[in-house]
Every structure is written in structure tokens, then in C-alpha cells.
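for ur thesis appendix - UmuC domain-containing protein. copy paste whatever u need, i formatted it the way the template wanted (i think)
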Amino acid sequence: MKYTLFGQGEGVCTEAPANSPYVTVDSSQVVTDVSVSAGRAGVRMGWPLRTAMAVTPNLIVFSHPERTTDTMHKVYRALWNVSPFLRTVDSNAFFLQVPGEDVPLAEVRQVLLEIHRVLHAEQRFRAGLAENPFLAEALVAWSRLERVPGALYYRVRQQQLIVSPGLARWLDTGEEIETRWLEQMPIPALWYIPEKQREQLLQLGVHRLRDLKGISDELLSVHFGKEAWLWRRAMEQVPGGKIQVNYPAIEQRCSWRAPIGEESGIEVVESLMESMAAQLCGELQRVSAGAMSIGVSWRTETGRGSYEHAARSPVYQPFSLIAGLEAGRLQMVGRRLELLDVYVSDLRPLQSVQAGFVLYEDAFYPLAQIERSRMEDVRVQLAHKFPKKLQIGIKPTFREARLAAIERGGSL
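the 3d part is after this line
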């Protein structure tokens, strides 16, 4: 099963100082992000800037960025190191799916610790761990209005973590995971319903999601149209679910242009490609990814050209990238280079491999891969021949071994 962690940042949409409250606003002067101290003072996202300034007159105001901040890029890299199932949302939120049999509390705690290291005092994340992506986002939205009944609340340094009531019940009793807890969600927290229609539902006496069960389809369609029938589908949740992975970017590219008024000979191509390959592969290695498709395009005084190569295994080393594009470099004709692009696409997460080597005639040679079943047969034979001598797992510390010896009544 895949468990979903949804995180939404506060104060992460700008690289602001860490010693004063601030907000970011869009072109219509509506608050899009709030720092920690501004939130504690009562400022909320979605407010007009005038209202926010009335609540906290000493606010520092920033424009909402057009691109993701460096802080969020560091957060995304920390998340990618835990699981490749990562989806970035807007400029301050993410979905991360962690597969496993048990609820990944330890993994999530480590994720939040990694995030804490790249944030300052005015930035933090509120994260919800739930059975599927919709429930994880609902958990965070609900928690901003009131305490979610039955949920577990944790604080990891300054970061906030909420575990869904369904997972909390499973951890406590071991019973089957169920998602009916969503039926108690308040209508104002249902972000997928327009604000105006949420207000109309409250006027009709509909305060919780479960109250929609008592309204007929005819009454819903009269007031809100037939699309309102889908609102009740939110109560039909099942564990698991999928997210559309969008990190790292589908394509990474490095570009070079000849300086205006200057000529660059075609002989600079080799050094340019080496520099671009080092930059691209450095970025791939930072996110533990490799490219299955690589390419180069160019323009000389004789015209344009391009070359693409499909790799058999993920490319993440500069020399592999240059070797894959060597055929394209040989196709370049002309004397003056005007434009050069090197790009990688179809990125895949790299799989860690534990390799073995044997020393033979002062050289290391890789061992042939052995099937797990054969290794298990060897382990069984050794354990039978040398009982209590072969141990698999973490070696105990001296203190643990000493305590074990005391319990056995012997000596270490």
C-alpha cells in the first residue's frame, strides 16, 4: 500500500528575512502566503491585503513569485531522496507517496527533519499523512479550521504533522483501515466546492459533509446544478490512490549562445559540451535521477541540426552523456557556431545496487550476480553447521551485548 503525505508550506513563497512577519500577495492584492509570526497574529491566506494590514500593521509585503524559490527546491530534493513518487503543487505544497506495509511514521519524521534544516524561523510546513492523496489534502485543510476528531498530532521541531483518524485507529487497534472519518469534515474546509456555494450550503443547514446525504438529487440540482451530485462522491474513498509525478522536471536543458558581434569557431563545441554535461549531470545526481533520452541541437552559418539518442540505461555521468552525443557532434558542419543546446529527458529514479568484488592478481573484478534463493540456501547450510554463529542484521552495541549476557546469567 502507498501512504500519502501532503504538505503545505507557510512563508516559503519568498526568500524573506527571518526576523519579521511578512506575506506574499498576487496581482489582485490577495494574500497567497503567510509567514509563521503573521499567521500567529491572525493573518490568513485568501484575505485582501487591506484586511491583513489592519490586523498586523508592521507586515512586510512581497509579490508572489513567478517561479519556485530556492528554499522549495531544497525541500523537493529532500523529499525525492525518500521516495520518487513526488508531485509538486503550486509553489508551496507537495504530495509524497511512501510505499510500505506499515504506516511510515519514522520515514515521515525524517522527512520533516530534513525539511526543518532548510527553513528559517518564519517558515514551516503543515503535513497530513493519510490513506490516499485526497484524504491527505483534506486532513490539512480541515486542521486549519478545527481539531480533527480521532487524528494524531505531532510536532517535529517547528513542523506540524497530522495522522488521519483511519490510520490512527489502525495503529491503535490493528483493525482494517476505513475512511468514513471524512464524513465529519466541515463544509467551509471543502476546497473543491466554490466559496459562494459553500456559503449557500451553510444557509441551507448543511454544516458537515455527511449532511449532503440527506439532500435529494433534485434539490441539489435546483440550487447548484447537476455537477453538485459529485460533491457526495468525496465520501467514497479507498486507500491507495495515485499521484501524477512531476518532479524532477521532465526535461533538463543547458543552452549557449554566441556573444553578439563576436564569432566562435566550431572547435569550441567539445569544451562547451563537456561543461554542459557536467552541469546537467550534477543536477541529475543531486536528485538521484538518470536520463533515458539525451539530445543536442545546434546552429551554424550553414543552418540548424539536431541529434537524439535513446540510452539503454539511465545516464547520469558526464562521460556517458558526452559519449552518447558523440555521433551528433560529428554531424555538425560549418566554421562558426551560433547556438548550442544539450538536453536530457525521460528522467528515471536511480536504483541503488550493492555490488561485490573479488581481488585477483592485484585487481578488483565485479562478482557475478547471485540469485537470492541461492544465497538463502547458503545461509541455511551455514546456520545449520554453525548454530548461533551466523547473524543477519544490525550488530548489537557493547551495552546491548552486556545486557543480553546479564539476562542469560553469564559473562560477556
